[in-house]
Amino acid sequence: MRRLEEVRAEVLAAVRPLAPVRLTIAAVAGLVLAEPIAAAEDVPPFANTAMDGYAVRAVDTVGAEQDAPVTLQVVGDLPAGRAPDGSVGPGEAIRIMTGAPIPVGADAIVPVERTSRDCATRVQIHAAAGPGAHIRAAGGDVAAGDAVFASGAVLNPAAVGVLASLGVVEVAVHPRPRVAVLATGDELVDGDAPLAPGQIRNSNGPMVRALVAEAGCEVVDLGIARDDEAALEATLLDAADRCDLIVTTGGVSVGDYDVVKAVLSRIGALVWSQVAIKPAKPLAFGVIGATPIVGLPGNPVSAHVSFELFARPALRRLAGHGDLDRPVVTATAAAPFTRRADGKVHFDRVVVALGPGGFSARRSGEQGSNVLSAMARANGLAVIPDGDGVAVGGPVRVMLIGDPVSVAD
Questions:
Q1: CA 337/CA 277 separation, integer angstroms
Q2: Residue 160 belongs to what H/E stretch?
Q3: Residue 375 falls in which region: left (phi positive, over 0), alpha (psi -120 to 50) or beta
Q4: Nearest to 186, CA basis, from 250, 246, 235
């Protein structure tokens, strides 16, 4: 058997980030930036108010209190989106709306809730305002010339908003990988069709497609591969031509009778490995032309775990991410993780909780490689080294595949 780290390194060494493309900012959320971005202008472009209220001279509000207001003359009204057409002089105020430019002469904003009106031309100020109060300075968010994003930054929705605020309309990014998913096996049945003796429903195909989509990739569904070498060859060659990576499930165990092996021996190169892990010991990896192909095991839990350990990091590298792995935390074993020494690292499906004392973890159910319901309940994979396991209260490393459950105590 081969060590996990060795096989993982081999897979990742064969994958390179996709060449950058230029896309409009409407299409880049979740993608990885392939160029640095500097600000060409200030954000905001002018000093403006952060509150609805009155633009005033701070000195004119000195001593104002709730029961002893200062009265100022209202000399204008300034909504957002309009340039000031007047200034604020001694004893004066201009009614102003959030986002409107600060008029000449004003150096503070009194929020409307700290004022009252007794007529159209006067306002009572019930609290003193210091210079600069509730004023957003020009360039207060981003100043012209600032380095805003480095190459390699992930463009989350807020980052897209920042780009828009700077007037950026398109950027260079690593594109979303197109990933073909193929389930293999004559025994597989899609949908709700009646099952003949020996047949099972195709759970791996929909599951892996969902995992690929969750990883931020575009899914190309290749359906189910039957025992027809010519048809399979045409399917795989077409997928290699139009996709960035192919994922198959099933037919990777030693001794499997599978047309996938026969076809790939002619059109590509594939290596079958026995990895020192449980579940997901068998793995296949190779290329068809320049397109990587990852062969996951047929047991559904093994396919899921193998995807997390090998396929997902490869997809993230294709997409240009620098951080390839799920977050790992150290949790306290809430129940024993018993096992026997077998030369393998075990990945137990667990429920991770986060409470005042930190993270805790317990198995999510039966650990058989066919028990997909326990995988569905899990939000983590506990990494149990070779040996006798982990006792209650002992530390256990957990790869988070979902959000921890919050507990009060």
A1: 16
A2: helix 157-165
A3: alpha
A4: 250
Q: Identify whether the C-beta of residue 100 lies closer than 8 Å to the C-beta of residue 80.
A: yes
Torsion of CA 5, 326, 214, 187, to 10 degrees: 40
Q: Is 200 exposed, middle or buried (0-12, 13-18, 19+ CB in 10 A)?
A: middle
Hey, what long-range contacts does 267-274 have (CB within 8 A, 24 or more apart)?
Answer: 267/233, 267/236, 267/237, 268/236, 268/240, 268/293, 270/295, 273/2, 273/7, 274/1, 274/2
- Rounded CA gap, 226 and 215, in Å? 27
Give the residue carrying structure tokens 């393998």.
Answer: 344
DSSP state of 227: S
pLDDT tens digit sequence for 72-113: 999 999 999 999 999 999 999 999 999 999 999 999 999 999
Q: Residues 29-61: pLDDT tens digits? A: 999 999 999 999 999 999 999 999 999 999 999
Tell me the C-alpha distance between 238 and 245, whole Å.
12
Rg (C-alpha) for the chain, rounded Å, is 31
For the chain, the distance separating the N- and C-terminal CA atoms, rounded to the nearest angstrom, is 42
pTM, 2 dp: 0.90
Q: What is the pLDDT of residues 278-315, one digit of tens each?
A: 999 999 899 999 999 999 999 999 999 999 999 999 99
Domain annotation for the chain: domains and CATH numbers? 4-17+176-318 (3.40.980.10), 21-44+140-174 (3.90.105.10), 48-136 (2.170.190.11), 328-406 (2.40.340.10)
- Give every CB contact of residue 257 below 8 A, 6+ residues apart in sequence: none
Partner residues linked to 136 by β-bridges: 48
d(CA 152, CA 286): 27
Q: What does the alpha-carbon distance between residue 310 and residue 206 come to, in Å, rounded to a whole number?
A: 18
